[in-house]
Design a protein that fits this description.
Helix 2 packs parallel to helix 4. The strands form four sheets. This protein has a six-stranded mixed beta sheet with strand order 6-7-8-3-9-10, with helices on both faces. With 389 residues, it is an alpha+beta fold. The protein folds into two domains: 231 residues, 3-Layer(aba) Sandwich (Rossmann fold); 120 residues, Nucleic acid-binding proteins (OB fold (Dihydrolipoamide Acetyltransferase, E2P)). The protein is built from eight helices and 20 strands. The protein is globular, with a radius of gyration of 25 Å.
């Protein structure tokens, strides 16, 4: 086993460089450019002035609730809908007015849409036959796709003889065998059960990395987007609310909407009573304490803000910790045992309920905290996210 030796300051040696992602490198041009796209259906504006830059080889997710506009945007990219305004460029070429069959784009539907009377082999080969490619080329590319999805032994089965996960893989192979520049996936795992969906997420990521095709995934499943995406965009009411890598959006949401949409979040409303270069003090009657939160950027004294803290960042104790900031107390109302973790629902004197998520290092019966106990809840200043919108 090889070990990396750090310098006295804890830095990596000069010979080791961190990879720079393409969206972090100004010299790398975007592969997919969505420029001020809007789409109206009568008086309903489903997509509102959306602009995105997506890079070659990304697995990019559009995440949002029902009716947020993510599927409408996907259909515009596929050419099934004409945008009301804006442009779409792929590899520098404006394809906004191109019909679907001329675009270097394929789409994998939620229903998979496999032909029931055709074998797996013929389903995958169908698009290539429509292009009148030589039989030898079709066979070679179909077999490569079958090997990629590990289904070569099942080439002569029909869709009704396959499991849900196998049908999903066949639909994926049919989508990538034509080697499109962009593959659109409309909630491709929604029909699978939880366990199979989790397994297939990693299979899909591995296949995408091997073929190198740019994927845009539409989903309402936060866990799916967090697991699979290189980057993701959060959508609401036809607009993009935040774009970033999954851990950046989770740890540093830019608004209350994003904070509450991604995972669970405790949010305390309050007023800024002290402002310094690297932190603010927030007086919150909801929390029943003053909150110290680190931040970047000036926030004036007297401003109404919110401080968001993830449940897993909240520590819990029967005895008070040192200091009186970022520390409140309440009564344990509910305990949800989830196997690897337990969620504690605690009611504060203000009536507000907050969550603390703790790993189950001990059996629940061995814990010293149970229902109706008074507990202290506290967190580090850097774990509070300051929200001004």
């Amino acid at each position: 086993m090889n070990y990396i030796t750090l310098s006295a300051e804890g830095a990596l040696p000069p010979s080791i460089k961190r990879n720079v992602e393409p969206w972090q490198d100004p010299s790398v041009p975007p592969y997919i450019q969505i420029e001020a796209i809007s789409k109206k259906y009568g008086s309903l504006e489903a997509v509102r002035n959306v602009s995105l830059s997506i890079y070659k080889g990304e697995l990019f997710s559009l995440l949002g609730g029902s009716g947020c506009g993510k599927s409408s945007l996907l259909r515009v990219l596929a050419g099934f809908e004409t945008p009301t305004s804006g442009n779409i460029l792929i590899d520098g070429v404006n394809i906004t007015d191109w019909p679907p069959y001329e675009r270097p784009v394929n789409m994998m539907f939620q229903s998979y849409a496999l032909f029931p009377h055709m074998t797996v082999y013929k389903n995958i080969a169908f698009g290539l036959k429509q292009e009148s490619l030589p039989r030898s080329v079709i066979h070679e590319r179909v077999m490569e796709s079958l090997e990629l999805i590990q289904m070569a032994p099942l080439a002569h089965r029909k869709p009704q003889e396959l499991s849900g996960g196998q049908r999903q893989r066949v639909a994926l192979a049919r989508s990538i065998v034509k080697q499109p520049k962009l593959l659109l996936l409309d909630e491709p795992l929604a029909a699978l059960d939880k366990r199979l969906r989790e397994q297939t997420q990693f299979e899909l990521v591995n296949i995408q990395e091997r073929v190198g095709i740019t994927f845009i995934l539409v989903t309402h499943d936060q866990e799916e987007a967090m697991t699979m995406s290189s980057r993701m965009a959060i959508m609401e009411s036809g607009c993009i609310r935040q774009v970033g890598m999954p851990h950046d959006i989770y740890e540093f949401p830019n608004s209350r909407f994003v904070a509450e949409f991604i995972g669970s979040m405790n949010i305390f409303n309050g007023v800024v009573v002290e402002e310094e270069a690297d932190h603010v003090i927030v007086d919150s009657s909801e929390a029943g304490c003053s909150i110290l939160a680190t931040h970047a950027g000036a926030i004036p004294i007297g401003a109404n803000v919110s401080v968001a803290v993830r449940p897993e960042k909240v520590m819990m104790s029967r005895t008070p910790p040192a200091g009186n900031r970022n520390c409140t107390k309440g009564i344990v109302q509910e305990i949800a045992y989830l196997g690897d973790i337990s969620l504690y629902y605690v009611e504060l004197p203000s009536g507000k309920h907050i969550q603390a998520s703790l790993p189950n290092l001990l059996r629940l019966s061995e814990r010293n905290v149970t229902w109706d106990d008074e507990v202290y809840l506290f967190w580090r200043a850097e774990n509070g996210v300051l929200l001004t919108s």
